[in-house]
Amino acid sequence: MSVAAGRRVTLSCPFCATLNRVDLARVDARPKCGQCGRPLLLDRPLAVTDQTFDRLIGDAEVPVFVDFYADWCGPCGTMTRFGVRGIPTLILFAHGAEVSRLTGAVPRAQIDALLAAERR
Ligand SMILES: [Zn+2]
Q1: How far does the centroid of ligand 1 lie from the alpha carbon of residue 4, in Å?
Q2: CA 33–ligand 1 middle distance (angstroms)
Q3: Quick check: helix, strand or coil at residue 82?
């Protein structure tokens, strides 16, 4: 977590959907939702919606890695917006802008290499 020390992200509560600003230097303190008081579950992927995407990606002071997928459906608005043509598609955002992406089934090492390149 040293790379994230003092940096903040905005997360939606998985229980009540309230947006919470979280200092990543305090993740070990297990932050709770300011509205409902339940844990923010930072060890799991977070779902975003059309209504929360821009704020969650734009407010993040650390790169955000987004997995675009379908639960199963045809093209959705978000997929069209980012030109996603296949799933799974993984897109890395930094300061609200796309910096790299991977599409299709890729080995873990390829994902690790993409994330490591962003940390440099
Ligand atoms: Zn909540």
Answers
A1: 23
A2: 5
A3: coil
* Cβ neighbour number for residue 87 with a 10 Å cutoff: 15
pLDDT of residue 56: 87
CB 111 within 8 Å of CB 101: no
State the distance from the centre of ligand 1 to the C-alpha of 46, rounded, in angstroms: 13
CB atoms within 10 A of CB 118: 14
pTM of this structure? 0.63
Interval between CA 48 and ligand 1 midpoint (Å): 15
Rounded Cα distance between 73 and 70, Å, is 6
Tokens of 9: 């992200």
pLDDT of amino acid 2: 44
105 CA to middle of ligand 1, Å?
A: 34
Mean pLDDT (10-residue bins), the chain, 120 residues: 66 89 89 95 83 87 81 62 80 89 92 84
Close Cβ partners of 43 (under 8 Å, ≥ 6 residues apart):
none
